Amino acid sequence: MLDKSSPLPLYFQLKELLREKIASGEWQPGDMVPSERELSEQYYISRMTARQALRELATEGLLRREPGRGTFVAEPKIEHGLTRLTGFTEDMQARGLQPGAKVIRLARVSPPLRAARALQITPDREIVLLERLRLAGGEPIALETSHLCFNGVLALLDEDFENHSLYHILAEKYHITPARAVQKIGADLCSQREQELLQIPEGAPVLRNKRITYDQWGRPFEYTESAYRGDRYVFQAELSAFQ
Amino acid sequence: MLDKSSPLPLYFQLKELLREKIASGEWQPGDMVPSERELSEQYYISRMTARQALRELATEGLLRREPGRGTFVAEPKIEHGLTRLTGFTEDMQARGLQPGAKVIRLARVSPPLRAARALQITPDREIVLLERLRLAGGEPIALETSHLCFNGVLALLDEDFENHSLYHILAEKYHITPARAVQKIGADLCSQREQELLQIPEGAPVLRNKRITYDQWGRPFEYTESAYRGDRYVFQAELSAFQ
DNA sequence: TTGCTATATTGGTATAGACCACCGAACCAC
DNA sequence: GTGGTTCGGTGGTCTATACCAATATAGCAA
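ok -> structure tokens follow
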């Protein structure tokens, strides 16, 4: 099973092998995996080598170890949410909801000061403002206001943002790939405008999200302010003590 | 230097010792720390034991290891600070604020159903409930309700949570290190109890956070529900398109 | 000066063996 | 039935040893 002549370390080969068993579904969450001693006999390696593979998979969150009981396949990780950079469209699809968008405003404007600062430009530059009501299953979920700035950004004024994801358009036509983003998430009461557009009661809570998105070269190209309905949306985040 | 008769593992004692040298500034970022072989001779332990201490400190980000060169004190991280798993205390310190806590309730209870599910235990298990009002600069910022469950958790009932961070106590006395956490963050209106404790107006928005924290073996040991003042607190997150 | 080589040191991998605390189940005595 | 004990299995810790690849340095040769 393991190739002792390979340049890849044995514990690494074993990790990949176990990872595959979990990914393929052969081992289900909660199942007990073979003990260190079993693995060492089965693959003709020492217990410490098997141990290293199990230990590292446990710190990665794939396995859960219990002294005196055994090692178990962990509950699956949350794939989406705050750790992976996704747009609203992918986000909703991951939750099994039908995403939609209604363009409220698409215009050439001068950026407000906080957008200019986020995009690292002077306020006299012309940028594209895109305001969309985001839907899931036909219901309004969020109001997104995006400030976009890159070379040739004005061509965006002719795009169709109701039937295509912003990030898809940027990737396919403009070769801009979102690579990194910084978000600030807070709670607030909705404004009157948001109340009407989102069809929520007066004084209802909203999640406010301010995001700066950077492209593959580390340049900021998008600054977006969003208001999500507090009763219909939660952010999910997976945190790690390491890295 | 190390106490071989102590119940604390030798590698753990060595970790604390090295951690102290870094925290005190005796070792500066970039400094080379003694090699595995030096440490094993100096403290009369085997190389593998010294190795375990260095390895774990490296995965925690305090040390940087370079094959063929040595082990060095890592530069303090800035970029990844936003996705790092921290408690309220470290969180506030990172923002330059003086953290504080007022214990509202510390008791032995049966877990509510959603806490039992999060902690992967049956609802008849006894756990420790810790409710704290979290302060920053003397002002109330959040109400935190933690459900704690691990072997010997009841000893927590005698701890002082007003002057010590929960995660510090867990690490130093119980050898439990938070390694991973999953959070759900939403917006809501405050309850009457929260309104009074947080000293905010009626109907004010709060950020609700539900967190499951896993230890170094991947076992859930803490389920915490928090309500943060919407006017004083934002979550920050850094997203990546990769991995 | 430049480039090579030998050497010592470093962390990385791997083995074999030992003892411990903890858990669960089977068993036994009351 | 209840409450112990025993026992086998598990992960956690620790030692001692060995070899490897990468690195830095000192010394030597062109």
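Chain A has two domains: 10-73, 88-229.
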